[in-house]
Structures are given as structure tokens and as C-alpha cells.
Amino acid sequence: MRRQRKNGTSGDAPVQLPCACASLRRAARVVTQFYDDALRPSGLRATQFTLLQALHLAPGISQKDLARLLGIDSTTLTRTLALLRRRSWLRAEAGTDRREFRLVLTPAGQREYRRVIPYWRSAQTRLRQALGAANWKQVMNAAVRTVAAVRD
Fold first, then answer.
1. Which three-class secondary structure state does DSSP give residue 130?
2. So what's the architecture of 44-151 in CATH?
3. Would you kindly state where each structural domain of the chain is located, as residue ranges?
4. How far is residue 30's CA from residue 105's CA, in Å, rounded to a whole number?
């Protein structure tokens, strides 16, 4: 057991914060850093891979629907999508409404997604092992339930 410091913390073990927002943001930052480290050899960041993955899984999604799916504000999404466009990994196709565009990975974008999958899979496996199967399932389910609860 770790010895407690005067401020109530024990070494580098995280303390439970009284605010759900602070706790979730801390977890999100730490997990993002973990995935960024795993993806670093590929040259992509977790944010970029997440977009490639979402577009691979939902080809033809509108930018508005993609923003809602990922919980990203429009400005941040536009900036990250611009990087994918510059690399010729993404194209926008006209939707049924002329004001709406559907986002689709190009063949180069699909190749990039497949190239980076092993780095992502390694991070997934390491995190799943660190948490254990039961906690992994709880975390994944809690993330979905949290989004649904806040949006309702």
C-alpha cells in the first residue's frame, strides 16, 4: 500500500475528483495521450485516426452528423477534416440537399486507415489488458451511457 502525502494523494496514483466533468476530462486526456503515443510511429494523432475510423465505418456521413457522432464542435471538426483533405484522404460529395456534403474516404484515405490499424489495435489491446475484460466492458458501456444521459 502506498503511503499518503500530507495533501491526501498517494504517489502518482490518481485521486478521485469530486466533479464528474473534471474526472472525465482527466481520463480523456490521459487516454488520448496513451493512444497518441501508440500511434506516433504512424505519423497520425488519435484525433486524426478517429476521423479516419468514423469515415470508414460511416461512409457518406454529413459533417453535421459526424460532429454529433463524435461530440466535436464544428470548428474543431472543420480544422481536422481540412488536414485529411490536404492529404487527399477525404472528399466531399454533394448530398440530396445541395447545401449538404457527404464525407467519403478516398482510396488513399482507406489505405491510410488500414496502414494505421495495427498501431491502434496495439493500443486497444494494451488498454483492455490493463483494465481487464470486465472493466473494459464497463468503461465502454459507461462512455455510451454518459453521452446519452447528457444529451437527453
1. helix
2. Orthogonal Bundle (1.10)
3. 44-151
4. 29
